[in-house]
Write a structure and sequence with these properties.
heterodimer; A: 495 residues; alpha+beta; MutS, DNA mismatch repair protein, domain I; Dna Ligase, domain 1; 4-stranded antiparallel sheet; 13 helices; 19 strands; B: 246 residues; alpha/beta; 9-stranded mixed sheet; 6 helices
């Protein structure tokens, strides 16, 4: 069976933009400085616009033409999606680029009560989704292809396939445009007109391709279609005879589901990064919990622990009758080399550590965990950046040429100072109503504000030590100017 | 019975008791921390007990910074063999850039910022069960005996070193920690006539040590390691490189 979508991309676009219904629409692509039409819809085609035209010409014909930029690969994505949808009709569905699908329906049609009903079902369902299509069933993929595009009868019976093919134009044989042009030039307007010519003569003039296509359409040569591989979701189901209401019961269910799922993951050398457990309750509600891991894992004990933290969040109410566990994000696991002895310290790449962080993230939230990496900025607040990843390594060295306080206040706090002008450190300062006499001081270290990032005053930092030996990081915001007092701040504490 | 035999029995009993209390005496495990020999002598077995919980008191932000620096110095030795470290806090103040001064590479520290003490302690307990970590630091307001006991039990199987930084002075309960420290900043010393601020200098007090001798020392962090300061030693040898003050 062949399905042909004459206006695939434009149909898809129109379904998403209701306001464009019944308006001429084209997809365009820029090529060598010209804007070329790649796809049209029915309304545009009626006006004489076709693929390969320049958009400017088409606009001249139909001023109200809607022009949309083409999305590369969209047709294939759509065909793949529709093909996967079609797997409900047959186990082997294949994409037939650029605008069709080929389904091998051997032994499937009777389930729908015959070929006619089968065909109607597909056509009605796809039409209801807004796709214009024509489909045909025949003995061979080539014949079905021809019948879908050029035939009058959607179902070509085995005994009349030759008769159906003969009146069709040569284009029905899926030929190269060059050969088609040559056939056209020689006046072969239908297959009927050249099928009687000797094969050797046809081969000499038009090459092997024409004969192959002809034989494929008539079933003399085999044609293999490459069916779409449907990816079965990583999902396990556990129906319960009696509704489950206790935490113990839920634990057993999770354990069983994880065992089944991890067995499959192990076979495929994969591990899960995220999983979701859906609990279908007796009162037809669904409660669900989600977990996520830092590195792909298929360690049952670890994953169980992550779920165990979430069990208090599951509300069984009258009972749960079905558990569904789905791994929503799956990644390949590179099998690690097992070491003979335990390394004393593990680095950041260690599995134990990743599992610990998963547990922490499960309990107190993933946003609580972070690491800091150096950034090439002098401005203290910007000299570090946070990262959630364990694998990210510092792009630059940690800068240690200037003293930096062990504890940094999130926001500098204003202090009162007594300070000799112009460039001396303060003699004393009051912070939180406490007077600190400064005995030793170092500075200033001027840090300019990065004007390309934000506007504001520069800072002059001083390292100071008071009479008790407590060390602080103070700064003056801005330069001294005649009329207004410069404001001083405390920004950190040294060890 | 001969007096020698009696001594042997007593020392063997002491060793057994120490082992039961969570001390390990295998020499292979001993980590020497450079410059800390005098303080190590205060502990039973004359070595710094790793695989135990240490408690630091800091009631003022300045003390917190000093304790942070001291702990970072210890972590620097513990993390030398390429381990990772967890720093748990309810209100993170520590500035990662400065930790580099104390020999720790800050990108190997994972910071966990939680909301409550309870969560911080839960995270700490979970982390202490993870064998591979080099050290875990937790800043909490207070620590009850029960909580400290739980941490100690977790540590006994994994042998990870934990540091608790307590910031609430009002309720100073007994804990099951192996040592209670207090680090206070003291005025730094410079060569006569030199301007600026000297190396970080602390008064390190071991307030309580299980089966050890409490004491008080003046320590300084210079050229990448601890340095004991005795009263006689006033002239500090300043190395040629740029001074690093944390």
């Amino acid at each position: 069976m062949s399905i042909w979508f004459p206006y695939l991309v434009t149909d898809w676009y129109r379904v998403r933009h209701r306001e464009l219904a019944n308006k001429p629409l084209v997809f365009t692509i820029k090529e060598h400085g010209r804007v070329i039409i790649t796809a049209t819809n029915k309304e545009a085609e009626k006006q004489g616009i076709g693929a390969g035209m320049a958009a400017a010409d088409a606009k001249a014909i139909v001023p109200s033409l809607q022009v949309v930029d083409d999305i590369p690969g969209q047709a294939e994505r759509l065909l793949r999606a529709i093909g996967e949808w079609c797997i409900r009709y047959t186990p082997s569905a294949a994409i037939d680029m650029p605008d069709g699908l080929l389904l091998d329906i051997s032994g499937c049609a009777h389930l729908w009560g015959g070929e006619q009903q089968y065909l109607n079902d597909i056509i009605v369902k796809l039409r209801s989704r807004g796709y214009d299509l024509s489909a045909a069933i025949a003995d061979t993929p080539g014949m079905a292809w021809a019948a879908a595009r050029f035939g009058h009868n959607p179902i070509v019976e085995p005994w009349c396939s030759v008769a159906a093919l003969l009146p069709m134009p040569p284009a029905a044989l899926r030929l190269d445009p060059i050969i088609l042009a040559r056939l056209q030039k020689l006046g072969f307007r239908s297959i009927n007109s050249f099928i009687g010519i000797k094969r050797s003569a046809l081969r000499r003039r038009f090459g092997e391709g024409l004969l192959l296509r002809l034989d494929q359409a008539l079933g003399k040569e085999p044609e293999v279609i490459i069916p779409l591989q449907h990816i079965t979701p990583y999902e396990e189901r556990l129906p319960c005879l009696e509704p489950i209401r206790t935490a113990g019961g839920i634990e057993i269910a999770i354990q069983k589901l994880l065992e089944a799922l991890c067995k499959r993951l192990k076979g495929e050398e994969k591990g899960m990064r995220a999983a979701i457990l859906k609990c279908y309750r007796v009162d037809s509600r669904i409660t669900q919990v989600e977990i996520a891991t830092h590195i792909a894992s298929r360690n049952i004990a670890h994953l169980f622990k992550l779920f165990e933290l979430k069990i208090p969040g599951i509300e069984p109410a009258l009972g749960i009758e079905l558990f569904v566990l789905e791994a929503t994000k799956v990644e390949d696991i590179v099998a690690g080399q097992e070491s003979l002895w335990m390394a004393e310290n593990c680095g950041l790449g260690d599995t134990d550590l990743a599992e610990l962080l998963d547990r922490i993230a499960g309990k107190v939230g993933a946003d609580t965990i972070c690491r800091f990496l150096p950034q090439e900025h002098y401005w203290p607040e910007r000299s570090i950046k946070t990262t959630r990843s364990l694998a990210e390594t510092p792009a630059t060295d940690w800068r240690t040429s200037r003293p930096r306080p062990t504890n940094l206040l999130a926001r500098p706090e204003p202090i009162e100072v007594t300070v000799p002008v112009p460039d001396y450190p303060p003699m004393l300062f009051i912070y939180k109503k406490q007077l600190h006499q400064i005995k030793k001081a170092d500075g200033p270290e001027r840090i300019e504000r990065e004007w390309w990032l934000e506007a504001g005053e520069l800072r002059d930092y001083y390292t100071v030590e008071d009479e008790e030996g407590k060390r602080y990081w103070l700064f003056r915001s801005g330069r001294y100017s005649g009329e207004q007092q410069a404001q001083w701040f405390i920004h950190g504490f040294f060890a | 019975m001969f007096p020698d035999a009696k001594k042997d029995i007593i020392s063997k009993l002491q060793k057994d008791i120490l082992q039961q209390e969570g001390y390990r005496s295998q020499p292979a495990d001993i980590k020497r921390i450079p410059g800390l020999e005098n303080i190590e002598a205060a502990f039973p077995g004359r070595f710094f007990p790793t695989g135990a919980i240490h408690e630091f008191l800091s009631f003022e932000p300045e003390h917190g910074a000093a304790s942070g620096g001291f702990i970072a110095g210890l972590l620097g030795s513990l993390m030398q063999r390429g381990g990772a470290c967890l720093w748990i806090s309810t209100a993170r103040k520590v500035f990662p850039v400065a930790l580099h001064t104390f020999g720790v590479s800050p990108d190997r520290i994972i910071f966990v910022n939680v909301q409550y003490d309870k969560e911080a302690l839960w995270v700490m307990e979970e982390a202490l069960k993870c064998k591979g970590l080099a050290g875990i630091v937790a800043e909490v307001r207070e620590l009850t005996f029960m909580q400290s006991r739980r941490l100690q039990l977790a540590v006994e199987t994994s042998h990870v070193t934990g540091f608790i930084l307590r910031t609430d002075a009002r309720r100073l309960t007994t804990t099951a920690c192996v040592a209670r420290w207090q680090i206070k900043p003291v005025p730094s010393q410079l060569e006569a006539g030199m301007p600026g601020v000297g190396f970080p200098r602390w008064e390190v007090a071991l307030l309580r040590v299980r089966n050890g001798k409490p004491g008080k020392w003046t320590m300084e962090w210079q050229s990448g390691q601890f340095q004991l300061i005795t009263e006689k030693l006033i002239t500090v040898v300043i190395p040629e490189q740029i001074r690093r003050v944390g």
